[in-house]
Design a protein that fits this description.
Strand content of chain A: under 5%
Distance between the termini of chain A: 27 Å
Order of helices and strands of chain B: HHEHHEEHEHEEEEHEHHHHHHH
Largest sheet of chain A: none
Number of strands of chain B: 9
Oligomer: heterodimer
Structural class of chain A: mainly alpha
Largest interface: A-B, 28 and 35 residues
Helix content of chain B: 55-70%
Number of strands of chain A: 0
Strand content of chain B: 5-15%
Shape of chain A: elongated
Number of helices of chain A: 6
Structural class of chain B: alpha+beta
Distance between the termini of chain B: 103 Å
Order of helices and strands of chain A: HHHHHH
Helix content of chain A: 55-70%
Chain lengths: 131, 315
């Protein structure tokens, strides 16, 4: 509530300042607030998680687990920004491809971690699904 | 019958071991952590608590240590809920920000809490002095510790210097969810700082606190992480809010250079250039913002339309 009042006031102030400088037919333009910049970050995180789920080796693993890739993607869409950021953080630890036995094992580990967090599997005792 | 008693005793013993404070044990018996053996922030002010008002007293203590003078009486209406005879955690966070300090929540790790004390940052802690099923909530301010003695020093209630066994403290703290926050002068980074957490704290300060304080917090974040887009944009937006258009322009320019794909950076740069009557440059930046699209495309289009209209008029 306070935030929206504040936003309204700042919008009005910007409009007033702009209007004082030059008479403006389009007075709505303004700065994009800092909070929405991190919304861009959130979108980037979401895209990264989606791209990860679309990777060929990941899709194969999901299939082996009996997880429908589309259901997984839907689940990603339903997560909050914070939850997506948490999963995206896990992806940084995932190897780029399954080029070694260890790499494959680790990729499986990360996939299971992600599907656990999505609430699709329950492999690890320490994960709490986001929903 | 004797067996039953013996079994009960064993069960109780097991229960007590299970209750041992794990983080305290790791700290006191584990390998050296690099923490100084003992610390006490003796200059931390003290506000003896009035009745149930430990929240305002703790907050005034922490703010005072950060160099922000505030009397508990002035904080009471902001955080004290008479019906609940206490203060909620979120309200302590909000009030910290209203006073122009960065409210930074620590990880729930005892070692982090002590590391902050070693760095000179007293921490507000939430304790449950009762039992899990019969809670007695209490806010105190941790101001020191002594590892050899296994003790922590608190400003607590009406006690200026409460010395508590570290494991006892851990129990009460764990029952309060291991919640600890710092109230920091903006720009001063916690010893255990993590980039995303600090930038979020600065963003929360921008939303609800004084713009100047948020500006300093962003500047502090950028000294450590010069490439952080949110902090750079926050620096520009707060400078703009304070009427410092030159600084706002510099920040947005830097943001657009470091993050050429950020539509927000180009849009805000366009906007501030336009305000500074540099219409040609503003037009180029606004066009770039529109090209990049994304969730802020509508805003970018409005900026572009505004600039184009002004140019038509000027002709």
């Amino acid at each position: 509530m306070q935030g929206s009042i504040k936003r309204l006031t700042s919008r009005c102030l910007i409009v007033a300042m702009v209007a004082l400088g030059t008479p403006m037919p389009y007075a709505h333009a303004g700065l994009i607030p800092t909070g929405e910049v991190s919304a861009v970050q959130a979108q980037a995180d979401r895209d990264r998680v989606r791209a990860f789920m679309d990777r060929e080796d990941v899709r194969q693993q999901l299939q082996a687990l009996g997880v429908d890739a589309r259901v997984a993607q839907d689940r990603v869409a339903a997560l909050s920004d914070e939850e997506v950021a948490r999963i995206a953080g896990k992806l940084d630890q995932a190897p780029a491809g399954g080029d070694s036995v260890l790499g494959v094992l680790f990729a499986v580990f990360i996939i299971l971690l992600v599907t656990d967090l999505l609430g699709l599997t329950k492999v690890f005792p320490f994960t709490k699904p986001a929903r | 019958m004797r067996y039953a008693a013996a079994l009960a005793a064993i069960a109780l013993a097991l229960l007590l071991t299970a209750c041992a404070a794990p983080q305290t044990r790791a700290l006191l018996q584990g390998p050296s952590t690099g923490l100084p053996p003992s610390v006490e922030l003796g200059h931390t002010p003290f506000f003896p608590q009035e009745r149930h008002q430990c929240g305002p007293a703790a907050l005034a203590t922490a703010l005072g240590a950060a160099g922000i003078g505030a009397e508990p009486e002035a904080i009471v209406p902001q955080v004290y809920l008479p019906e609940r005879e206490g203060s909620l955690q979120v309200e302590l966070l909000a009030s910290t920000r209203r006073h122009g300090a960065v409210a930074y929540e620590l990880r729930p790790v005892l070692e982090d809490l002590l590391a902050e004390l070693a760095a000179g940052h007293p921490a507000i802690v939430l304790q449950n002095l009762g039992l899990a099923w019969a809670p007695r909530w209490h806010y105190a301010v941790a101001v020191g510790y002594d590892l050899a003695r296994g003790e922590i020093v608190l400003r607590s209630g009406r006690e200026r210097r409460q010395v508590m066994r570290l494991d006892t403290f851990e129990h009460t703290w764990a029952r309060g969810g291991r919640w600890a926050i710092l109230a920091l002068a903006p720009g001063r980074l916690p010893a255990t700082v993590r980039e995303a957490d600090y930038v979020s704290a600065a963003l929360a300060l921008e939303r609800t606190g004084p713009a100047q304080a948020a500006r300093s917090a962003y500047a502090g974040a950028l000294q450590r992480w010069p490439g952080n887009l949110t902090a750079r944009m926050g620096l520009g937006n707060t400078a703009y809010a304070l009427g410092d258009l030159a600084a706002a322009e510099a920040a947005f320019r830097q943001a657009a250079a470091d993050h050429p794909d950020s539509a927000a950076a180009h849009n805000n740069l366009a906007h501030v250039l336009f305000r500074r009557q540099r219409h040609a440059e503003a037009l180029a930046a606004a066009r770039r913002a529109v090209e990049l699209g994304g969730p802020q495309e509508a805003e970018a289009r409005r900026t572009l339309a505004e600039i184009e209209a002004a140019r038509r008029k000027a002709r």
